[in-house]
Design a protein that fits this description.
Length: about 850
């Protein structure tokens, strides 16, 4: 398997100034005519080597000359044209078979819809091209298809003409005036419904807005449309960025490997992130749609107008755009809740990745398959790096710096160094030491100790930096650390952002009457792990004035209580008493629901040198049951206070009521008693919101088969024809805490509603099981064996989906001996599979190498 290295980057020898594409779509095949206008950039270059995979070549024309076979060389992944002039046009006709494309890269069919996914390297599966992000061209695209089957024909840019033909076929021509790389090319053809709207930019330009979907689902696009318009307003106000075309199209499809794709003027979305109404979508689904719609729109400037020079720069567009969508969601919703949710996601996914054999910097140094680097590290940790820059610069200087970035690099393919140059040049801040965040891997730990003498408080900090994956020593980081000191009366003495830059540092605070309480890493100002000598969780969870560190103290207190159960089989009475304090808090309800949440198994797992999931589950179950038993009446009173079965509104108060009500129901379910079962059954029957119905089903499924059988069958009959809702059904089954879950999953694979070729369904059933640690990590190895079987099976259909499942094994090196031995057998079976994709090979080989 060939490894690609950042150090080997070379500028392209040729540039494609313009590209004219004609797609003739038929049911059995597609004919692509690709005319490229090419300039030679390196005068010594004799031949042009185009990227090309699995294409049936029809003919090639150099200027007006049809080339004989002696003028070109066809290889497995390339087409080379020999002896080309300094300036020329190259026309290539080739045939492809979208209906057979199960990898969902390039041009493929999602149901009856033709659509594309070209990031990172899908365009080479459509037509021969310089398929790299630093070759930016002007595209004109004509699509021709059967009019009755494909009345809607879409591509990038603005629609320029429409053509009707006598044989029942028709065509449309689209022109995108903005240069773009091939990965941003898009095409859609189908018989689609549409929700249309309009928007006028701050400078008065009219923009037509369309969201296309399967006919009958148009009403479920309203939330996505309102989210799009909110994002357009926000980007104008916060970043000064206006939209730059006459039309903005979104298309929702069921079969899509990713969440969505920011193709210029024609975003293609996984339908999961477009379609929603109160009867089919949960509150979390609505929030996800708002976030992802905004994310793809924001890419118009941070990704499209300015793109990556090469794929090692992926965090340039993704880290920055994730930060932008996080800020957008925070501004439109509870900023405290959104920040905590973002950090939870980072820790559940990225911290685990950082502690695994697949750890990598936000700017990787090498890859075998680029698809494997669409990771939490590149995206979420990348966003935290941008957030630290924002903190270091401050709001105004950051805005001035992004203005300089847009003005300087518009229309170019650039690097992370170019972005850092803009930040430093505009603000005057030297960010040289900060660059380590782009090049080092792993999560740094900050050891914290303090002392107080004669009115002087000294804070001592020591950075503990993990070695890289190849055991190379790494350097201390430069980062902002937001702290506060609280007095004995719980009043805030000071809040300050410290700059940490050395392995060991001390910060001194004078003139204090007594030793203060330390509130550290407020708002999660840096993506680090805090290791604190003095644990003052009880005080801080009650009195900290920062919502994040208050939540952090609550979680840390819970972790300590659970670890005490594991080590001594004793439940901490002080924690139990403090939990009652949380129950009585009169605060924002969504925030309260987060405070009442016990630390997750993933959180506990990350703290163990040798992981034993049985221990973790036993401890968490014991503490949950104790809390439910002691505070049953108080929990029930909270439930009754906020249970509004007819309420489907999406305002913050309604969402908060559902969040806290369902949190206490989950805690109460640990009792597995008749009155709680009846309560959950009643909630399922009477509630109109999908959030409440799903919460009730999860509780019933986890209590017993008998209590869940009727409501689950009712749910199935209601929604078996709705793929998006069936994703929820499969997830409930795969995440069950009851014995027999694996057999249930095996049975569901034969259900008519399941299709292994649809990524959402695979993620819901198979992917969810890999996060059901109790059964995936069963010591008999049957969970590992099942997932290995699925990887080998799916790898032949969709390598990107298979490699995603391979990542579930990345905890291998930290497992106890029994689990590690069982997992190793399956990893070796996977990697010895003939014709294993490079996607899966890269992940499994890294795990076994470690």
């Amino acid at each position: 398997m060939k490894t690609i290295y950042l150090k080997d980057y070379k500028k392209p020898e040729f540039d494609i100034q313009g590209c004219e594409l004609i797609f003739e779509l038929f049911e059995e095949h597609t004919i692509v005519t690709n005319t490229m206008h090419i300039d030679k950039m390196e005068l010594d270059a004799k031949n042009i080597k185009l990227d090309s995979i699995d294409l049936e070549l029809l003919d090639i024309w150099l200027n007006d000359l049809k080339l004989q076979e002696s003028r070109y060389i066809i290889e497995k992944e390339h087409l080379t044209i020999l002896n080309v002039p300094s300036k020329f046009s190259l026309k290539i006709r080739n045939k492809i078979y979208p209906q057979n494309n199960t990898e969902l890269e390039g041009l493929y069919k999602s149901g009856s819809i033709f659509c594309t996914q070209n990031e990172p390297e899908g365009f080479r599966k459509i037509t021969p091209y310089l398929d790299r992000p630093d070759v930016m061209s002007i595209y004109t695209t004509t699509i021709i298809a059967q009019k009755d089957r494909y009345p809607v024909l879409l591509s990038n840019g603005n629609k320029r003409s429409y053509h009707d033909f006598l044989n029942g076929r028709h065509g449309a021509t689209w022109h995108d005036p903005h240069p773009k790389p091939s990965y941003l090319f898009a095409l859609v053809a189908g018989d689609l419904g549409v929700l249309s709207d309009e928007y006028t930019t701050a400078s008065g330009e009219f923009v037509e807005l369309n969201i296309y979907c399967d006919k009958g689902n148009e009403s479920q696009c309203s939330h996505a449309m309102s989210s799009l318009k909110e994002a357009m307003i926000w980007d104008e106000q916060v970043y000064g960025r206006e939209y730059d075309l006459e039309i903005y199209n979104i298309v929702a499809v069921d079969s899509f490997n990713m969440g969505a794709m920011e193709n210029k003027g024609l975003n293609i979305f996984n339908s999961h992130y477009v379609l929603a109404d109160q009867t089919t979508a949960t509150d979390a689904n609505f929030m996800g749609i708002q976030s992802v719609i905004a994310h793809e729109y924001f890419h118009n400037w941070t990704g499209n107008r300015i793109t990556c020079r090469d794929w090692f720069q992926l965090t340039l567009k993704e880290g920055l755009t994730v930060f932008r969508d996080q800020c957008f969601s925070s501004d439109l919703n509870s900023s405290e809740v959104r920040r905590i949710e973002d950090v939870k996601s980072l820790r559940e996914r990225q911290f685990v990745e950082d502690a695994s054999p697949t750890t990598h910097p936000i700017q990787p140094k090498s890859y075998i398959s680029m698809n494997n680097f669409y990771t939490a590290t590149v995206y979420e940790k990348g966003a935290e790096v941008i957030r630290m820059i924002y903190t270091l610069l401050g709001e105004k200087k950051y805005r001035d710096a992004t203005d300089l970035y847009f003005e300087t690099f518009d229309g170019q393919a650039v690097t992370t160094k170019d972005f850092l140059w803009a930040m430093s040049e505009s603000s005057g801040l030297d960010l040289k030491a900060f660059e380590l965040w782009y090049h080092q891997s792993g999560t740094p730990k900050l050891k914290v100790s303090d002392r107080f003498e004669h009115g002087i408080y000294t804070l001592s900090l020591t950075q503990v930096i993990p070695k890289s994956v190849d055991a190379t020593e790494q350097k201390p980081y430069y980062f902002p650390l937001k702290i506060a000191l609280l007095g004995l009366d719980a009043k805030e003495i000071l809040e300050q952002t410290l700059i940490v830059s050395q392995e060991k540092e001390e910060f001194v605070f004078k003139g204090l009457a007594s030793k203060p309480y330390l509130s550290i890493n407020r708002d999660f100002s840096a993506p680090i792990i805090i290791d604190q000598d003095e644990k003052e969780y009880s005080f801080l969870m009650k009195h900290d004035t920062n919502s994040f560190t208050k939540y952090e103290s609550t979680q840390s207190f819970g972790i300590d209580a659970l670890e005490q159960i594991i080590s001594d089989d004793i439940i901490d009475e002080e924690y139990l008493n403090s939990f009652e304090y949380l129950l009585d808090l009169d605060i924002e309800l969504s925030y309260k629901a987060l405070l009442l949440e016990l630390p997750s198994i993933s959180t506990l797992m990350q703290r163990q040198e040798v992981v034993d999931f049985e221990q973790l589950y036993l401890a968490r179950d014991k503490l949950s049951k104790e809390l439910a038993s002691i505070y049953k009446e108080k929990l029930l009173s909270i439930y009754k206070l906020y249970h509004e079965p007819k309420n489907t509104e999406l305002d913050s108060m309604s969402i908060g009521k559902r969040a806290v009500k369902n949190r206490v129901l989950s805690i109460l379910s640990e009792l597995k008693c008749e009155d709680i079962i009846i309560l959950a059954q009643k909630q399922y029957k009477e509630s109109l919101s999908m959030t409440d119905r799903i919460a009730a089903l999860v509780v019933l499924q986890n209590i017993s088969k008998e209590d869940s059988e009727v409501p689950l069958q009712d749910f199935y009959e209601l929604y078996k024809g709705d793929t998006l809702v069936m994703n929820k059904y499969f997830s409930i089954a795969a995440s069950s805490t009851r014995d027999g879950v694996l057999q249930s999953i095996i049975d569901l694979e034969y259900d008519k509603a399941y299709d292994k070729k649809v990524p959402n369904l695979v993620r819901s059933l198979i992917g969810t099981f890999t996060r059901n640690y109790r059964y995936f990590h069963a010591k008999n190895g049957e969970g590992y064996r099942f997932i290995a079987d699925k990887i080998i099976e799916i790898d032949k259909i969709n390598a990107q989906m298979a490699s995603g499942l391979c990542s579930s094994f990345k905890i291998y090196d930290r497992l106890n001996k029994d689990n590690k031995d069982a997992m190793k057998i399956e990893l070796e079976r996977i990697i010895s599979t003939q014709e294993l994709s490079k996607n899966s090979y890269e992940i499994v080989s890294k795990i076994l190498k470690d």
